[in-house]
Amino acid sequence: MPDLICVFGGVYSNHLALAATVEAAWRRGARRFYCLGDLGGFGPNPDKVLPLLREHEVTVLQGNYDHSVGHGLADCGCGYTDPRDNHYAQLSYDYTLARTGDEFRAYQRALPEVIVEEWAGKRVRMAHGSPRRVNEFLWESAAPDAFLARLMDAERADVLLVTHTGIPWQRTLPDGRLVVNVGAIGRPANDGTTDVWYALITVGEETAQRVSAELCRLPYDHPRLAAEMRAEGLPPEFVATIETGFWTTCLEILPPKERMRGRY
Amino acid sequence: MMRPVIRSAALRQSLAALAADEAAHLPLTALDTVWIQLTGTLCNIACRHCFITCGPKEDRVRMMTRAEVQNSLDECRALGVKEIYFTGGEPMLHPEFFAVIEDSLAVAPTSFLSNGILIDPAAADRLRALFDAARYSLDCRISLDGMTAEENDPVRGRGTFQDIVRGIGLLARAGLAPVVTVVEHALGMAATAKRSAFLAFLQGLGLDRPRVKFLPLLRIGREVRRTHGYGDDDFVRAGSLDRVAAEALQCGSCRLVTADGVWTCPLLLDEPEARLGATLREALAPIRLRWAACHTCVAEGLQCRT
Fold first, then answer.
1. Residue B305 included in any domain
2. Domains in chain A and their CATH numbers?
3. Which ipTM was obtained for this model?
4. Could you give the number of structural domains in chain B?
């Protein structure tokens, strides 16, 4: 009997998508939940996320946002270079930091930076950005096979699970090792739909040694999130992303292939 | 062929006086970025701020053959390189330019740095086809040094504004989104308001996803004659570099491949002593930040990568 594990990242304060993810994955048969970090930012009312993580016993890894909020740092450490991107990132970060209570900050501060599991005899390395740097972006079109193999060699990993970019993809390397960017449940993937994405990892199907991934599209109550964001006075550009599925800010970091799929 | 002496005598003297131990050391953290000097110093124009003095008659660093590039690409794959950039000179002068780009895209995401003058409708269509066919991203980077001919042409040459803008327009029509790089050759060019104006200007050329990258001036090469070189104090002393600054330096994660061997970075092509070996594998040792240009990377956070 294969084991189903739900892995997601980039919650970005989207408590509605978090609840919907857990429900959808549970219905599919998942009984274990992992979050690869970035609990806050972008969305409204960050403290609504903590009770859900506890209720569903989610194992959480520390993202750059969680590290910054947890330690009350001056910025999110997202790794943007463009001034406009940094302007919006700062708006989002200042709001999130001000609205995150002490208990959730302490929780984020204490999160582990690394999670390693052994599933079906495979060494599964989870990281927020990449195994070597919390805010390194692993985009599908900018992560060559040989480079990913180098990162995994250094970790002796058979499976690598990451997030941070917000756009999901997966690839089996020529040597059979699996890399999955689980995407983000906090905002859509710049594909013109309002859905968000999580991953279901299947362990032990077909052969006992097999680990495979399915990237799952998830509709959720995005009009309600948009209304909540407006009520909180978050930038209209952020609300537009939730309502259209296209990113409006932080675009300079996108490699050309991923950028061309969006509207801006 | 002799390399030109490009620094002031005073600076050369002060650098010579700088004992090897005095310049900061930098290890190669990881070889992520490989630059390939595809056409050597051969270019179809001769910009007055060119930091490696390229031009139509500048053949002191020769063009690489497709086979030589392929050897480097094989090394890139073996070493797990993350991204590849083609530069020159003007890379599009290479007789097998499109084939070389295709070879590279099979290994890693690839960018090329061009002045855009050689882009005609057929070239734009070929680039679009390469973009669509590759698994990895192809990025076109076009250099333009102003929003008007009056601003650009005194630096890049008479008539170049019109030709470059036409090339950008052709890429836009082909559905590509080039990064336009602007050297800050006059004060205040990279200011936020100017940046916004530049993005709007690019939108006016048909780029619905305008991208711009400002680069600081490098006071070497032909720029020394246009304005001036570095001052005697412009070098990076050991101990002057904190960990954060050191980690941000591109030479901690890049190398430059040329027809004559592997150099530290694209800025140091004219420094024979910045040659690290014949192959990438031979060029993985720590380097010394002993060159005046290193000052710009440290002081202004210059990243040649996009």
1. no
2. 3-261 (3.60.21.10)
3. 0.95
4. 1
